Amino acid sequence: MYTWLIIGIGGFIGAVLRYGVGGWIQGTTTTFPVGTLGVNTLGSFFLALIMYLSEYSGFFSDQTRIFLTIGVIGAFTTMSTFSYESFRMVEEGQYILFTANIILTIFLTIPAVIIGKISAGYLAGCL
Q1: How far apart (Å, rounded) are the C-alpha atoms in residues 20 and 41?
Q2: d(CA 72, CA 33)
Q3: Helices (H), the chain
Q4: pLDDT at 126
Q5: In a 10 Å sphere around its CB, with 0-12 CB exposed, 13-18 middle and 19+ buried, how is residue 55 labelled?
Q6: How does 30-44 read in b/e, with b if 16+ C-beta sit within 10 Å?
Q7: Roughly how many angstroms between the first and final C-alpha of the chain, as a whole number?
Q8: Residue range 103-125: average pLDDT?
Q9: CA 42 – CA 28 distance, rounded (Å)
Q10: What residue spans define the domains of the chain?
Q11: What residues have CB less than 8 Å from 27, skipping those under 6 apart?
């Protein structure tokens, strides 16, 4: 039951952060979902950083790792929103924006995971 509670608290925090950070990144731009792209990129980086710090050095306890990764980051990242927004672009005939959104998401979030892993290696003294 404790695990469910920490995931729920983390999820609340992640959802609030997603709303705030996503809105801040999006600003007044309405044509392209840069807010969603931004939170997915940040979430990918921090998920990798936490997971690899845990793997390399045991930096986080199991409960802290679960709280941060499943709770906070799980609610912070927005792949379902990404999918919906991408589909809406297709429905609206915005094929160039749709393609840009898919390509940028893949080419920013995967490198963010790699950078998170490398950062964790340095912070843990493994690299």
Answers
A1: 15
A2: 21
A3: 2-26, 34-57, 62-66, 74-76, 79-91, 95-123
A4: 87
A5: middle
A6: eebbebbbbbbbbbb
A7: 38
A8: 95
A9: 20
A10: 2-123
A11: 34
Per-residue confidence (pLDDT) for residue 79, from 0 to 100: 87
pLDDT at 80 over 90: no
> How confident is the model over 4-49, as pLDDT tens digits?
999 999 999 999 999 999 999 999 877 899 999 999 999 999 999 9
Largest CA distance in the chain: 49
- In the chain, pLDDT over 90 holds for what percent of residues? 89
Residue that is written with structure tokens 């920013």 in the block: 108
Amino acid at 116: G
Distance (Å, rounded) from C-alpha 8 to C-alpha 104?
30
Could you tell me if 37 and 31 are in contact, meaning their C-beta atoms sit under 8 angstroms apart?
A: no
